[in-house]
Amino acid sequence: MSSTTTAPAVLLHGHLDRPTELTVRQLRELPCHRAEVSFDCRTSGPQRHSFQGPKLWDVLHAAKPRADSGTRKARLGHLLTVTGADGHFAVLSWAEIDPEFSGRGILLATSIDGRPLDAAGPQLVVPEDTCGARYVSGITAVWVGPLHAWSAAS
Ligand SMILES: Nc1nc2c(c(=O)[nH]1)N[C@H]1C(S)=C(S)[C@@H](COP(=O)(O)O)O[C@H]1N2
Ligand SMILES: [Mo]
Predict the structure, then answer these.
(1) What pLDDT, on the 0 to 100 scale, is given for residue 5?
(2) What pTM, to 2 d.p., does this model score?
(3) CA proximity to 134, closest of 85, 79, 83, 97
(4) Domain of life, per the record (predicted)?
């Protein structure tokens, strides 16, 4: 990312009991999953990649999300935003990562096609998406909270 030796970290913030920053190296300490994916980009056409990394669900739990203590109905009203270094961001609903709902295999990749992402920062992997736009790369922040709490400044 830069010429400094400091590896970029992902800030987990919002409605969490333990807001935290995690480097790609720290993400590798969580259980690792592989996803072979294909998606279509409007500008660069069809893409295929092999990603490896932890589930976003497991990463989030390192920061103790407050939604976890709520009922299923209460959890449903939460969302996550995943932001890249260039400002590109995507929104996920809580139910997309919660195994008691769709619980999809959404990952924070620590490598793409065998290449480590320590310097670039992790990449969001949304295997069921046919469009690549939610594959946010160079992730710098993940925010989680109830819908009403979201604002660009939070
Ligand atoms: N940070 C960031 N991530 C991003 C984008 C972006 O502009 N910024 N573009 C998205 C889009 S539109 C696509 S199609 C994929 C492209 O993935 P590729 O590396 O296979 O081209 O990255 C996604 N991730
Ligand atoms: Mo794209």
Answers:
(1) 62
(2) 0.93
(3) 83
(4) Bacteria
The whole-angstrom separation of Cα 96 and Cα 23 is 24
Confidence of residue 13 (pLDDT cuts 50, 70, 90): very high
Fold of the domain spanning 9-145: Sulfite Oxidase; Chain A, domain 2 (3.90.420)
* Ligand 1 nearest atom to the CA of residue 43, by list position: 14
86 lines ligand 1 (CB under 6 A): yes
Cα 37 to ligand 1 centroid, rounded to whole Å: 14
Domain ranges of the chain: 9-145
**In this predicted model, what pLDDT tens digit does every residue of 120-142 receive, in sequence order?**
999 999 999 999 999 999 999 99
Report how far Cα 32 is from the mean position of its chain's Cα atoms: 14
Q: What is the mean pLDDT of the chain?
A: 93
For strand 89-93 and strand 139-146, is the pairing parallel, antiparallel, or unpaired?
unpaired
The kind and range of the H/E element at 57 are helix 56-61
Residue 9 main-chain phi, psi, to 5 deg = -125, 155
Tell how far the Cα of 41 is from the centroid of ligand 1, in angstroms: 8
